Amino acid sequence: MSPNPVTASPTMPTPPPRRHPMGPPRRSPASAGAPQERRFNAAPGGAPRPHYGNRAHSGSRASMHARPPASGPATYSAPPTAQPIAQRSAYKAHANVNAKYAPNFNTAGIEVHRSIRVNEVFEPLVTPTADSDLKLKIYALGGLEEIGRNCTVIECGDDIIIIDVGLMFPEEGMPGIDYIIPNVAGFKGREKNIRGVIITHGHLDHIGAISHVLPKIGNPPIYTAPLTAGMIRGRHEEYPNVPKLNMVVVEHADERFKIGKNFIFEPFHINHTISDAFGAAVHTPFGTVLITGDFKFDFTPVNEEPADLGRIAMFGSKGVLALLSDSTGADLPGHQISEQIVYDELDRIIAKAPARLIIGTFSSLLTRVQIILTLCEKYGRRVLIQGRSMQKNVDLAHELGYLQFKPGTIISEDEYGKYRDEQLVVLCTGAQGEKNAALMRIATGEHRFLKLQEGDTVIFSSSVVPGNERSVQRLKDTLVRHGASIVHYANMDVHAGGHAKQEDLKLMLRLTKPKFFIPIHGNRFMLAAHGRLAASVGVAKENVFIADNGQVMAFDVNGGRLTEERMPAEYVMVDGLGVGDVSEIVLRDRTQMSEDGMLVVIATMEESTGELIGNPDIISRGFIFVKENKEIIDKTRLLVRKILEASDHKSPVFDEFIKNKIRNDVGQFLFSQTKRRPMVLPVIIEV
User: What is the reported pLDDT for 181?
Assistant: First the structure.
């Protein structure tokens, strides 16, 4: 029998002092003999603790993490898999979560459990195992050969945890597909071993597949921060027939959760383009595995704290087995620019804009929304929000206290006509050129009441997602035709990306000093570039694992290796209400029809004699216009007649044979005439 790999240590390191975003640090107890009660915003010794959900509701300066009433804190029981590490069994929880996340919160198909705070928390140490049969496996079900569909799996013994369950939007050659989700077929029969799902932040490439995937894998608990929990809740409302979600809200960046027998999860604060983003430290019997999630280092962020470099370095000083790091910006030199630079640039633009401003950005880029709202208040402008997803996220973030603005800053559509153009800012979705988004409808004149006019300034406060270049170019052309001025990230600093560039990635590697390095979240060339960066800062080349989706990386007492073992990681495509019912064959047919069209051949035959009744009917869709190509249609009809008259209708396989022959012969004839290969669909009707 191997020893229990998880043990507790009687000490916990004090996080480095930092300025709390809502005010000065709390003071430590007055005397050394006073009991060391853990306050909501203070670590031992009075240092302010990093935490999530740290913005006050409706602009109030009162923290959500207010001191409990004098009557004493409430006591709750935690779900079995969600108990933070402690040396004793008496847990006390304070009412320090927004009321949305009370234990009895049960709205919109989600059951949310509050994470438990204790008076004394002890740092978990995972004892190295001597069991030669125990193995740690790491693999990705998405995100290693693409942008999106992020989903990483860690297995040890009978315990499985999943980090992120995202979607990917369709590529060219996927007509009709809404999005693509991870393949979880490899968990069949092992659903009970999945101890939890950790969600690092609220972007769709990390949460978009939750409502599809979790019901299939036993609906394990989700560990995530308050804003992300709210965004998951909002998306889950769109799926009324799926089970309720079980959420464990991660409120503070120094919480630790024992998940199963072999894992301890510990979040750490990083910066991204959405609030409440965190990285995940997973302590295992073989060492600590760090997953950065999507991240950047921003030393002057807006509306949040800088990334917790001290905590990240602490992991490195204690030893990191493997670092799984965001590779999206691995081929870009330098540092990612700060949100403060974007603030200053937008400040200058809004101050000088002579007329109406229209700003397009991502609906989930809430830090940018806060900048825009703050600047509009500074210069006396009113903000009209357009786009369902934008409005939904703004409402949620304001409700949870992540967005702060004065009453009257955001106006309704009914109030819009009361203000002059120079008093208005339209904040909308559609900066990627989406055909049904608000900005595209404004540009094309299809919006209900917003029309472009001479003097408008349109700001694209976002980067161009790969694959959307043509759509964005056409959108800009349309805007300019109507007299608008265009501002975008290529000519002014109106956007800061959310992904670390090369120098920031090197810093992460230097801080964590991993023994093994696994680049994630990016195309293959991005992963390879990140691997070269790791080697340049001292990681042994043989310890850099550039894997494919589904390829297993195994660790045991002898070390780590990239294996040839594969887990199912093929695309699962969502098309309307269908999930996984669109195969490669269906996509190939759709692609063929979209490129060369289709030709339907309908022939009616006498069942008893096999004689053709009348002439075959020819229907063309997307191939040729029948009235202008009568000669080709007549020749095709004649060819079909000859094929039918020369065939033996009494053959037991006549129906299959004749359809294949029509398909092949007509296809070859049409290619010889047009150099195109339409899909030929023969229909034989026997009467």
Answer: 92
User: Does this model's pTM top 0.85?
Assistant: no
**In which residue are the tokens 């005439």 written?**
673
Helix, strand, or coil here: 62?
Answer: coil
List strand residue ranges (DSSP E) for 567-686, in order: 572-575, 578-579, 598-605, 617-621, 679-686
Task: Report pLDDT digits (tens) over 321-365.
Answer: 999 999 999 999 999 999 999 999 999 999 999 999 999 998 888
- CA distances 670 to 569, 597, 598, 599, 662, Å, are 39, 12, 11, 10, 12
User: 566-577 pLDDT, tens per residue?
Assistant: 999 998 888 766
Strands (E), 71-190: 110-114, 124-126, 136-142, 151-156, 159-163, 179-181
d(CA 515, CA 323): 8
Q: Which DSSP letter does residue 11 get?
A: -
Residue ranges, the chain, pLDDT below 50: 1-50, 54-124
How far is the C-alpha of 304 from the C-alpha of 277, rounded, in Å? 10
Tokens in use for 680? 């030929």
Q: Which residues contact 682 (CB under 8 A, 6 or more apart)?
A: 601, 603, 658, 659, 662, 663, 666
| Degrees, nearest 5: CA angle 308-509-507 | 60
So what's the pLDDT on residue 28? Answer: 33
Residues 6+ apart with CB under 8 A from 572: 180, 181, 182, 183, 579, 580
- pLDDT at position 172, please? 66
| CA distances, 346 to each of 137, 232, 304 (Å) | 46, 30, 18
CA 246 – CA 196 distance, rounded (Å): 10
Predicted pLDDT of residue 309: 96
Backbone angles phi, psi at 63, to 5 degrees: -70, 150
Token couple for 388: 């369902």
Rounded to the nearest 5 percent, the helix, strand and coil shares of the chain are 30, 25, 50
420: Cα within 13 Å, side-chain hemisphere:
5
Instruction: Give the model's pLDDT for residue 578.
Output: 60
| 447 neighbors 474 (Cβ within 8 angstroms) | no
Determine phi and psi for 679, rounding to 5 degrees. -75, 125
* Residue 96 · residue 65 · CB < 8 Å: yes
| pLDDT value, residue 46 | 37
DSSP state of 49: P
Residue 585 confidence (pLDDT)? 65
